[in-house]
User: Fold these one by one.
Assistant:
Number 1:
Amino acid sequence: MKVMKFGGTSVGKPERMHEVSKLITKDEESKIVVLSALSGTTNSLVAISDALSKNDKKAAKEKIDTLEGHYHNFIKELVTGDAAYAKAKTIVAEHFEFLNITLKISHNEALYKDILAQGELLSTKLFCLFLEEAGIDHQYLAALDFMRIDEHDEPALDTIKTLLEQTLKQYPDKKIFITQGYICRNAKSEVDNLKRGGSDYSASLIAAATNSTVCEIWTDIDGMHNNDPRIVNKTRPIEQLSFDEAAELAYFGAKILHPTCIWPAQLAKVPVKLLNTMQPEAAGTTIQEEASSDGVKAVAAKDGIIAIKIKSSRMLLAYGFLRKIFEVFEKYRTSIDMVTTSEVAVSLTIDNDAYLSQIVEELKTFGTVEIDNDQTIVSIVGNEITETEDLLENLFETLKGIPVRMVNYGGSRHNISILIPKAFKEQTLQQLNKGLFGLE
Ligand code: ASP
Ligand code: MG
């Protein structure tokens, strides 16, 4: 068994869906195909839901109609025969009927999740209809029958495994299964999801649950690159990464793979392949247990970082100080990315400002608090990078002229992170491209 996951842009146009059908019929291996919603759909569903939560029914209705129009155009080019077209119209009608009903009932969190689930339900059903018309044997699987999260909103891998095994057993003769990414049921059996971009996570969980040979993540970019191609002129694709290296890169902004996607695959030792639907023959990036080589492999940047400095003379020689500070962040469920300490101050970073004012208020009881907004973490990643000779010397030389706000070194052997003002991001990535990779 293998898993093949296709993202929003890979199924976002009828012709792209046609391409996907070719990719999934290329070999004989049994496969579970995991699909995202058509690109743009989840954003529209969020906007519909937001309008409903503000009780702006008019705006919600307009957005529902626009989205419905989009699907009507989509199905015209997806299928050719009258019978298939009639079925496609029924599928679209069913889901938009639901969305229209939401205009008449009161809005709440559970309904919000139901609305968000429509995107993946539509994409998979329409894709199955296309396969049916094309005569490609397959089986539709409802992810809501087996994808589960627990009371802490964490995937319940053992339950997923049991339920999925039971489901698959019903179809011993099928080789191609189609299911939804992103959506699941929670501990209360309500429809829920694995958070935005969560289809990669679904794929990795399904791959782990079925002990798949590989988890293929198909996007429209050819694998991970050593640097951000939108910012620097020359980048090179990375053919192989270890799970540890990939985790560091995914957390720090390499947009191509959702960070949570790493652990299930790593746990079950299923290699993850990042492949490009536009260039299916390209090698892409393989992520597996072993690293291919030591030393610097890539840099990645993450924007929207807030640096917080807590300065207190009471910290001098005190124990338990860090615990008290960290407890404040725990209380507001805000995770910390970078930490550095001196004898009298602690600097740390967060990327979620939802509770910033509450956090700052509580931190003020420990000392003076300073905030720097609009910071960027630049992470330099590679196996055993901290043991690489001359690396620090080379790195600091390369960073000449950049006002570095924080440095994290030694937290992991595979990562060195620096914090800079966002205004210096382009310059930093360009200088690193030259200094560490010799690319200009
Ligand atoms: N459709 C969902 C989103 O846009 C999940 C995904 O695409 O991974 O967030
Ligand atoms: Mg996506």
Note: The mean pLDDT is 94.
Number 2:
Amino acid sequence: MIRVQGGVRLDGTVPVSGAKNAALPAVLATLLTDQPVQIANAPHLADVETALELARALGKSANWEGDRLTLSGAVSVTRAPEDVVRRMRASFLALGPLLARLGQAEVPLPGGCAIGARPVDLHLRGLAALGAEVSIEHGIVRAQGALKGAVVHLDYPSVGATEQLMLAAALAKGVTVIVNPAREPEIEDLCALLSSMGASTHWEADRLSVAGQPALGGASHRVMPDRIEAGTYLLAGALVGGEVRVANIRPQHLEALLAKLSQAGLDLARGDDWVRITREGTPCAIDVETAPYPGFPTDLQAPWIAFLTSTEGRGVVRESVFESRFAHVPELRRMGASIDLEARTAIVLGPTPLQGAAVKVPDIRAGAALLLAALAASGETALDGIALLRRGYERPVDKLRTLGASIWET
Ligand code: EPZ
């Protein structure tokens, strides 16, 4: 349980950790080689531990030294353990590398989760286009066959499907061209790792090419900063008030959020690897629609709604990436927020004073929204289900304490 005594200004600097959504594909990319791969700036998160558990179950050795991971050894198991894949959706990215490395793979279908059905049809159609025979029996995806480079068009720029195909293509025979790939910074990060392992990647206007190699070597890679963690702490400063500086980031990864915060009237300053936000007075409500990068990130939609409760006017938020990603709304209403929901749109009227309450964390980013609301609310908030929050945020209590928050764990 995390408890927060709200209404305390936030002032200070937050060091941002390595990106969860870059570290996870990086761990799975190590399945492609027997050689040692070092991954620096890896965040200590439950999801990263789950990815390491999966890699070990498949035959790799995996060890921490500070924030640096080293994975080595040959994968020897073609079947991913069900309990691990069901625990974390990104485990499904084991399919492509296992298939590419061993010629066959069996990975359970990932469950849907709090934010939607999250099908994997684009992953499977893409692997089939590379020559794999893909079938699903009793909830297990089976793929086998030698992979050959091909042109694969993605109906939607899916982050996971793009990563899945990049990982498979890295050991396929010939060049794979992914048309309409995801363009999130995490994709660039994976390109950099695969290139340093020996698979060359190349971006053009609407496509990403990956030239497969017979074998890949070891590498030493540094994970990019977590743009979603950075955006979450900026929104904490925007909501609660004070002067918050997020450090060790790439501001260019946050342009959509920074533009919206400026439009809302927040005072922003930025350097090469930091952004500072200052809230003076009442910002005005600004509409947002989530979209694939470089659009407004869906992972900041929930924290944005928490921020909107403190702005003047009517803010319309359209969630265009996932079909049901408003689990934070009922909990925010319990804290006094005025939010109407219509299908994939939330309409927030503000400013409304928030009161502390006992709330339950339904998913990672909804949990972040509730934590931000707790920091702004009058009185005490008790957040239950913080294990979910820890899947996406490293040491949130310590980091908020450095900003002056009255927050503790019981
Ligand atoms: C990644 O999920 C992230 N997770 C998500 O972050 C993030 O919200 C999402 O990308 C969008 O940016 C990781 O990187 C581990 P998608 P992913 O495939 O790959 C549909 C967090 O909180 N789709 O781009 O699953 C899908 O249903 C998490 O850190 C298909 O229809 O996202 C969704 O509506 C949450 N068929 C849309 O595409 C497919 O085969 C975007 O999904 C694949 C996806």
Note: The chain has two domains: 2-17+225-409, 20-218.
